[in-house]
Amino acid sequence: MQSDKAQQTHISFDELHALLARIFARHGTSNEVAAILASNCASAQRDGADSHGIFRIPGYVATLQSGWVDGKAVPQVTDAAPGFIAVDAKNGFAQPALAAARALLVEKARANGIALLAIHNSHHFAALWPDVEPFAREGLVALSFVNSMACVVPHGGKRALFGTNPIAFAAPRAGHEPLVFDLATSAIANGDVQIAAREGRMLPEGYGVDRDGRPTCDPRAILDGGALLPFGGYKGSALSMMVELLAAALTGGNFSFDFDWSGHPGAQTPRTGQLLIVIDPSKGAGSNFAARTELLVQQMQDAGQPRQPGDRRYRERAQSARAGIAVDSEELARLRQLAEAA
Amino acid sequence: MQSDKAQQTHISFDELHALLARIFARHGTSNEVAAILASNCASAQRDGADSHGIFRIPGYVATLQSGWVDGKAVPQVTDAAPGFIAVDAKNGFAQPALAAARALLVEKARANGIALLAIHNSHHFAALWPDVEPFAREGLVALSFVNSMACVVPHGGKRALFGTNPIAFAAPRAGHEPLVFDLATSAIANGDVQIAAREGRMLPEGYGVDRDGRPTCDPRAILDGGALLPFGGYKGSALSMMVELLAAALTGGNFSFDFDWSGHPGAQTPRTGQLLIVIDPSKGAGSNFAARTELLVQQMQDAGQPRQPGDRRYRERAQSARAGIAVDSEELARLRQLAEAA
Q: Of the candidates A82, A161, A295, which has its C-beta nearest B111's C-beta?
């Protein structure tokens, strides 16, 4: 993903969105699903979140072609309780499942003070922050958890069991963009291991194990049958376990080790589950929640924290709004070919 | 807290509970509050959680004597929404506030699928796992967040701002004790820094900074105007920030840097807030949640993870049930003096 600035071109969000939607639809999704996935992917590219931008398109296409995911699935929403929505994504993507239940989720959160959306039988192959940020724009607090595919060894163990299992959080901030983070509970992303291997760099200690479960700093040993470690030792491992329980056990989805895609060569999207929790802070004693968030951020800045969660994305987003979204010219050409191919 | 086994004596839970309740009541709490705090503290001692057992009693006593906390406070419970309870602890301890709202919280979680308890104006000076474990015994999933006092530097910063800000989680597990963790988002507990300083040991890298915000491995430099670091770098720091927002901003409580106890020498309990989220997993597509938890634990064991969260506590608990709760003889004598003094 390291691209030479000279080879970059810039296109508008709408143009990129239309191109990506065409690619999805050409490879077997419904138009509704194509629009949702294109929006997610174009947003990541716009915000400089390269590993979840157009970089992901070949993986989406390969997965659709393999028949592993149903790009035309229509999610089935069940109003399970006043604060609890369950969605069967019907082996489709998680984002359309969220979209199908989103209005009801907001309604329930405002009526009850808190509400939960449990998605199962779903594929999540994208960044998690786009799922939570919009709730904060409506004054709500949102948390989300997604499990993925077995590539992380539990603390002290030898075999991969957990996914990279991200946790995302969004909160409104008075007078500013929402405060949003999206962090994998693995010590490092798989993509960064691949980049280190390509560049012949060793990794810091504590990022991975080799095929025998022994600690290694060699990215090739991690990729060659090894696995990642959780971030932060036993604490990160406990949080990753929690993500498995919330995103899979609670929703009725697969654990990260549960599914078998061996009959679908090319499949890259984990078939698991996702949980969202949305809270209406106006119900609390702190009716000035967004102002309190802003005070905390100010204090973090005063304490010398150089960057707030989400800062880089917002900066890139503003840059993209001014100059268009930066895309590698060769990659753009390949995308245009994919938009024509079936 | 390193005690010579030869100096230990063993007493029953009921005897320890009665002794601790007497101490609390003698130092200004109501009988109701005394019973609740005694139960919490005796449970920690029983489970080998030494740093939250009788070790805490002098801190409780000093705080009560300073007038910083109201040991007779009667929490005010507000049924804010079908899934949202707010409690003003009235400058009392957090545990009686939870006790006052607990039955309603369970009722709301079962009716709505998820419910939230926001406690503010409260003091939490205990382990967090005792607050969540009982929900899992009733088949519910529970999460809790408490902020404390400024002693942790945000990632990349120089000044302490966050508390040790623990996150606790509990889930039912078929045929076994609940799966429970309680982890500080700081890299190390304050008590462990004190022990290292006493023993003249250096700490590993990444645990703390000195008074100028520079990384240090010297526990004395951390204690002498320095501060702790979050666990796991920027990720742990983001989670600690989230705890401030959930436990303080959302509840209407103080941030960890908000309160001023300088007028109350001896005060040790942070006056902040606490959030609990309780989920009824039977509302999800996964009606067999506890069996799925058990499967995950089995897989963690098969993957070579040597110990599950909570294992040590349950082992110590069983040992205490057989042989009585181990207490240092001299400490027990001091407790008995405190129970008579006012």
A: A82
Residue A136 lies in a domain: yes
Pairs of CB atoms within 8 A across A/B: 250
pLDDT of A159 higher than 60? yes
A183 inside 8 A of chain B by CB: yes
* One domain for residues A234 and A281: yes
Q: Tell me if chain B has a CB within 8 Å of the CB of A236.
A: yes
Do A169 and A127 have their domain in common? yes
Which of B113, B284, B285 lies closest to A83 in CB terms? B113
> Is 0.90 exceeded by the ipTM?
yes
Secondary structure in 3-state letters for A214-239: CEECCHHHHHCCCEECECCHHHHHHH
Q: What is the pLDDT of residue A48?
A: 94
What tokens appear for B331 in the block? 């400490």
Each residue's pLDDT tens digit, A191-222? 789 889 999 999 999 999 999 999 999 999 99
**pLDDT tens readout for residues A315-326:** 999 999 999 999
Q: What share of chain A is helix, strand, coil (3-state, %, to 5)?
A: 45, 20, 35
pTM of the model: 0.96
Domain containing B262 equals: 75-186+230-307
- The answer to whether B17 is a known catalytic residue is no
Do A124 and A43 sit in the same domain of this protein? no
Our answer to whether residue A155 is catalytic in this structure is no
3-state DSSP assignment of residue B165: coil
Of B231, B305, B306, the CB nearest to A232: B231
Residues A42 and A98 in one domain: no
- Rounded-to-integer distance, Cα A196 and Cα B227, Å: 34
